[in-house]
Specification:
Helix content is 41%, strand content 13%. It is an alpha/beta fold. It has three domains: 65 residues; 45 residues; 183 residues, Nucleotidyltransferase, domain 5, CATH 3.30.420.10. The longest helix is centred in the C-terminal third of the chain and has 17 residues. It starts with 14 loop residues before the first helix and ends in a 15-residue tail after the last helix.
């Protein structure tokens, strides 16, 4: 039966072309895309069909046919990216490099950062050109992010201690993240809240009448996400001691209690230091100075703040405390634990490249 379909272009290589193509295939520094095109041409030169070459090299018959045709018409030059339609390029590589250097190494005379308009005027380019260059190199002069470096000399040791509890908790023990959120305001708006209507958001007055504050002591159980909370009017060592007593009562006997907490003065007064030896199943694990992100309960504090207290109105501290207790009870009916995934070594590894003064790996 006669073979149907479009006949493939005959491809014959000269000795020089074969040597060049085989050299690019063998060279490790050859880009993968270019090496694949060379392999396609070499395979086509054996007389194989586009379909067979595609199956052999993990490509598609359409791609094989395209590079076969390009090579037959333009030889090795055809394996490169052909010129595209449109006007010629007007911005040189030197101009692009100058924009990037100026953005990274200088600021305008009358501003703290570059804008596309200011950079365009400075470099004699259009705003759209500057914008494209910034996007290509991931430059965002309009943005800034904050950071903080812990000065704790035992930073690495404390990170290993706390993260070890998260990733490999001890047997017959519960791990809690503990902290207090002080100065929770009980404000009421000076005028009635106007409810949301179609097309109009809820409207509230910017000023409010403050009825007082409360302090929330919370212990987040790492394994389950359940929270034990206690509300007080003050957040002294005395209130923290009462909270520890409540934890001792609520945690089943026979289980050790590991508490992850910061080094706030309330947590290390003589009264607390005297309480701990009398309750030997309690073990305290301090987070490094300035590293509240390591304490998972800090993340949980955002939940009641965003969903209950920030926009709520309370005419008294008692009303505030009632709503917070109700919210915690609702949370505990369907708790969601926060899963820690990064190891201590992954956290500590970047310290090797930090400036002098950061904690070293020896603590």
């Amino acid at each position: 039966m006669a073979r149907t379909g479009r006949p493939k272009a005959e491809l014959i290589l000269s000795d020089e072309e074969r040597v060049a193509l085989e050299g690019w295939v063998r060279r490790r520094s050859t880009p993968q895309a270019w090496a694949l095109r060379c392999r396609i041409v070499l395979a086509c030169a054996t007389g194989a069909s586009n379909k067979d070459v595609a199956a052999q090299l993990g490509s598609t018959p359409h791609a094989v046919g395209r590079w076969r045709k390009r090579f037959v018409e333009h030889r090795i030059v055809g394996l490169g990216d052909m010129p595209r339609s449109g006007g010629p390029r007007t911005v040189t590589d030197e101009q692009v490099a100058a924009v990037v250097k100026r953005t990274l190494e200088s600021t305008p005379k009358n501003a703290a950062r570059w804008s596309t308009r200011a950079m365009a005027q400075e470099m004699g380019l259009s705003q759209s050109t500057v914008s494209r260059i910034w996007r290509a190199f991931g430059l965002q002069p309009h943005r800034s992010e904050s950071f903080g470096l812990s000065t704790d000399l035992c930073f690495v040791d404390k990170v290993h201690d706390v993260v070890g509890l998260y990733l490999d908790p001890p047997e017959r023990a519960l791990v809690f993240c503990v902290d207090e959120k002080s100065q929770i305001q009980a404000p009421d708006r000076s005028q009635p809240v106007l409810p949301m209507t179609p097309g109009v958001p809820q409207r509230i007055t910017p000023d409010c009448v403050r009825a007082g504050t409360a302090a929330l002591f919370a212990a987040l159980e790492v394994a389950t996400g359940k929270v034990i909370g206690s509300l007080h009017r003050r957040h002294r060592s005395e209130e923290f001691g009462k909270f520890l007593t409540r934890l001792d009562q609520e945690v089943p006997t026979g289980l050790d209690v590991h508490l992850v907490l910061d080094d706030y003065a309330t947590h290390k007064t003589p009264a607390i230091k005297a309480w701990l030896p009398a309750h030997p199943r309690f073990h305290l694990h301090s987070t490094p100075t300035g590293s509240s992100w390591l304490d998972l309960v800090e993340r949980w504090f955002a939940e009641p703040t965003d969903k209950q207290t920030r926009r709520g109105g309370h005419r008294s501290v008692q009303a505030l405390e009632k709503d917070v207790r109700t919210w915690i009870a609702a949370w505990n009916t369907d708790p969601r634990p926060y899963i820690w995934t990064k190891t201590a070594d992954e956290i500590s590894e970047p310290l090797a490249s930090c400036p002098d003064g950061r904690p070293d790996s020896e603590g």
